[in-house]
Amino acid sequence: MGRPERPLDPTAGPVQRLAHEMRKLRRAAGSPSYRVMAKAVGFSASTLSQAAAGARMPSLVVLQGYVRACGGDPGEWEVRWKEAEAETHQVPAEEVDDVPAPYRGLARFEPEDRHSFFGRERVADRVGELVRGHRFAVLFGSSGSGKSSLLRAGLIPRLQEEIAARACPVTLRILTPGPTPATTYGHLLAPADDEPESWVVVDQFEEVFTLCLDPRERARFLDMLLAARDPAVRLRVLVAVRADFYARCAEHRGLAEALRGAGLRLDPMTAEELQKAVVGPARAAGYMVERALTARLVDETLDEPGGLPMLSHVLLETWRRRKGRMLTLAGYEAAGGVHGAIAETAEEVYGGLSPDQARAARHLVLRMVEPGQGTPDTRRPLTRGELDAWADLDVPVVVERLTRARLLTADEDMVQLAHEALITGWPRLHGWIEEDRERLRHHRMLADAARTWREHDRDPGALYRGTRLARAEELFPDHGSDPALTEPERDFLTAALDVREAERRAAARISRRHRILTVALFAVLAVTLLAAFGGWYEYETNQRQLDPGRSVGVADGGRDLAGGHACRDGDADGAGEL
Q1: Predicted TM-score (pTM) above 0.85
Q2: Could you tell me where the DSSP H helices lie in 321-465?
Q3: R_g of the chain computed on alpha carbons
Q4: Contact 54, 95 (CB under 8 A)
Q5: Per-residue pLDDT tens over the stretch 387-439
Q6: Alpha carbon distance 483, 192 (integer Å)
Q7: Residue 419 in contact with residue 336, Cβ under 8 Å?
Q8: How far is the C-alpha of 225 from the C-alpha of 254, rounded, in Å?
Q9: Which of 64, 123, 306, 329 would staple 293 via disulfide (CB 3.0–4.6 Å)?
């Protein structure tokens, strides 16, 4: 038996009341030890013990683990936790999810968020000058440096103002390449003579290398973009690419020239810029940030590679734990800090799913990851068509839950991870990727092959064969019921296996036919030889019957020969007697 827990006064406040109710649940479950509970749910015994200590508000994911270990209903306790959380921070419970947040979390800033976008004003001006000075330009920066938000909330509004002041009309577009960029956007990159000049911003340009697997499609798209260097084309292009794909860009001569002459690197934010990013959105929305919290956030994020999405997410979670109009250091610590907030949120959502929903969540988020080959893993957008082709009924529920938690972003065309920081910031997802890396790589190839097969009207020539089919069969042994596969992917593998079986049967029939023909050939040859021998023997027999002296002459000749030998022998003997 461990030492007794400190008594609690449930009337002392929402934290103590919640802890008191948790202890009651544990007693009703037979008072299992915290060590036994820890083994059941995967948390440490001290974490579970502190959750019911009443000293501070436990995170939702820890509370749900505590509840599961005691046989309770996590969904019911989530409601209790939200009520206590709202009461603790003096925020009405109905406002916990309904009040517009001043921070975007893992989601990128959009043009309509320009009044909440702080800290990148100087860089946004430099990018605007780059676009005005070069018909084709490149912005590159590390993952998590804020490129997408800078383009949308920093650059696009500036360009819109400039276009509005111009006498000549201009069409401004922002796009991401996807798997077929030339086919999808070719008409936008070649404006006709009677159309306005086109200004195109290409975000996440690395998708040209990660999602576009057809070299000819990629080359066509690059040629279309680089054509902007010719003033007669009436096209102006800015591409934003991750810094770790710089070498891939340099492999293309035209892109290499652009990087040398019209490239801009997005540097990490300074301490002053980080302070603006922390305080600015809160002030614009009528909130305040504790000085100690601002100093802590700047200190932990400064010079942190890829730290901006983690900063944005923990700010959102800290705002949700605010005390009145104040964002506090205590709320920040309760959210898990810069490095723990993403995992805390993801685990909170994942812990609230049913077993079937949790399984669907794993397949869903893994499908949104493109495993790197010598480069870091990247996001892979999931189209609505691909999502609709998924027969798992739990997937729509999971998408809604993850989107509401801002772990996913969704629109009418696609669903994707809110940021690549989720790949490295959520240990569970990172572990799934490492565990299934080989299968994921082949799954991506399978998805592309299945799409090509359908686009070519299910042409048997586009199906897997040989070693590729054998490897797919090994990785997806129960493809007919594999929940990770969509219906088109299952149909593709089924068709490939059916064709292979048909080819095997046809080969077996041909082999049997060859064996039968071989046996028949030998039989015919044997009959022919026997017939020939029979014919020869009959011929010889007939010849002897027609010429009977032939055999007699032969016999007489034999006797004469024998007599001659005898005479010579006699002569020899007579000579001896003389």
Answers
A1: no
A2: 329-335, 337-351, 355-367, 384-388, 395-404, 421-425, 427-435, 437-455
A3: 41
A4: no
A5: 888 767 888 888 888 887 878 887 767 888 888 888 888 889 989 999 988 88
A6: 47
A7: no
A8: 10
A9: 329
